[in-house]
Amino acid sequence: MEAHNILSKRGFSVRSFGTGTHVKLPGPAPNKPNVYDFKTIYGQMYNDLLKKDKELYTQNGILHMLDRNKRIKPRPERFQNCKDLFDLILTCEERVYDQVVEDLNSREQETCQPVHVVNVDIQDNHEEATLGSFLICELCQCIQHTEDMENEIDELLQELEEKSGRTFLHTVCFY
């Protein structure tokens, strides 16, 4: 959602999704996450965690994150339930990248329109999310200025890998 926020502020048309069966937020222990249905709005999650342990969820930044999220959109969305077409899908974790590619490859091809799926691994903490979001924004701005994304994206990703020291995964799927 941090990348969603930054890209939206820069004028990009953005949607953000989860890929799991539920929304999982850190809990009081690593093996005790807070689990919500995708139908749960961010405000309800915020109020629930506020009641459970305001100090813990303020300290770990979850309340701040939920407050930001509810200003962006009402609730989380699940990628597998969305049938919209995209030119570019960005993921921030290899596991999510694999789920997106698997879902796209399992769909019936109707238009044969290509979609580029790119993964930028970002650790799940506030600082890395912010740094990763700026890298994602730079990637999107570079793609926006290409004349032929289909033929230039691999070279662009290679240049950004060298500049950032991060590795990108990239594949093309078809709708």
Automatic annotation (TrEMBL):
Keyword Zinc-finger found: no
Catalytic activity: O-phospho-L-seryl-[protein] + H2O = L-seryl-[protein] + phosphate; O-phospho-L-threonyl-[protein] + H2O = L-threonyl-[protein] + phosphate
Listed GO CC annotations: nucleus
Gene3D superfamilies assigned to the protein according to its UniProt record, in alphabetical order: 3.40.50.2300
Keywords attached to this entry: Hydrolase, mRNA processing, Nucleus, Protein phosphatase
GO molecular function, one term: protein serine/threonine phosphatase activity
Domain of life of the organism encoding this protein: Eukaryota
Keyword Hydrolase applies: yes
GO biological process, one term: mRNA processing
Enzyme Commission code: 3.1.3.16
Localization, UniProt: Nucleus
A Pfam match: Ssu72
InterPro entries named in the record: RNA_pol_II_suA
Family classification: Belongs to the SSU72 phosphatase family.
Function: Protein phosphatase that catalyzes the dephosphorylation of the C-terminal domain of RNA polymerase II. Plays a role in RNA processing and termination.
Protein name according to UniProt: RNA polymerase II subunit A C-terminal domain phosphatase SSU72
Species of the source: Tupaia chinensis (Chinese tree shrew)
